[in-house]
Amino acid sequence: MWLWYSLRERSFFYFSASNPGILSGGMMGESKYEVLSLIADTLKPKTILIKLPVSAAALETQLQEAGLTYPLIFKPDLGERGWMVRKINNPGEAQQYLSEIKIPFIVQQWINLPLEFGVYYVRFPNEEKGVVNSITGKEFLSVCGDGQKKLRELILENNRAMLQWEVLKKKYQPQLDQVLMKGEKIELVSIGNHCLGTTFINANRYITPALNESFDRISKNIPGFYFGRYDLRCASVEDLEKGNVKIVELNGCGAEPSHIYHPNASLWKGVADLIRHWKNLYRVSRQNHLRGVPYLSFREGISIYKKCKALQR
């Protein structure tokens, strides 16, 4: 039922052939680069699109011409759930990434700001103002030393880190037998994705009238945008409220209001929030349809889904 609902009630991020000036929607398949290109440069990291095939030398040339220096974020132009999103620290890691990626990918400036949030925004097309109805804080996967245990032990004793063991043991192989000093903290993964061990925190307490005004202003400057989640970094909660942020990604109706994954959160409250979320999606979709945006057919949706899955193999 969810699949059918998402495919039918599109509201964001597929260009409509009959209305090329209107952004409509889908649960996956949109170009991340095209979406980011709609956002003002002051609000996003420097980003370039790399098309395949490309050699390691040609990639380095493109990075230099764009003024990009390591560390960088590499991510597929079409992707979901953190698939193939990596922090790349040097040309050797970039070359390894090239040997694995099979589709065009984005290279993005690394934003070294301490806080990362997912901010869900909705505005109904027949209304002047929109609101933020979900904020998710992100705690990156980390371990803290006690002066006795090795890094290997700290990882395997951490419920989230142990699930990433196969990746982490390769990444931290030279340090696994190192004893961390008491209070010494290592951030194991710097990508704010649930599948990579990040803890999602309900941060809805940060929703204020001022924050709503800030994201309403940002969102109205994105053509055809009514419904989606900003993944962003900022220096402080005060900057978040003012809209002084760097948007690293903007996702449409395939993105959840991820505050529902807060540890020990109520299942039934999460279900209620998702029902509200889907109702909002329906309203936006319906109103856009009345304004001339065609629905995505079930056949089109299945075709896009299969294409995305085939590219990710």
What would you note in describing this structure?
This protein has helices at about 1-10, 30-35, 55-65, 90-100, 150-155, 165-170, 210-220, 235-240, 265-290, 300-310; strands at about 15, 25, 45-50, 70-75, 85-90, 105-110, 115-120, 130-140, 140-145, 185, 200, 225-235, 245-250. With about 325 residues, it is of the alpha+beta class. The chain folds into three domains: about 1-45 and about 110-140 and about 200-310, D-amino Acid Aminotransferase, Chain A, domain 1 (2-Layer Sandwich), CATH 3.30.470; about 45-110, 2-Layer Sandwich (Dna Ligase, domain 1); about 140-190, no CATH class. Strands 11-8-7-12-13 form a five-stranded antiparallel β-sheet. A hairpin with an 8-residue loop joins strand 7 (about 115-120) and strand 8 (about 130-140).
Tags for this model:
4-stranded antiparallel β-sheet; 13 strands; 3 domains; globular; disordered N terminus; D-amino Acid Aminotransferase, Chain A, domain 1; 5-stranded antiparallel β-sheet; 20% strand; single chain; Dna Ligase, domain 1; 313 residues; alpha+beta
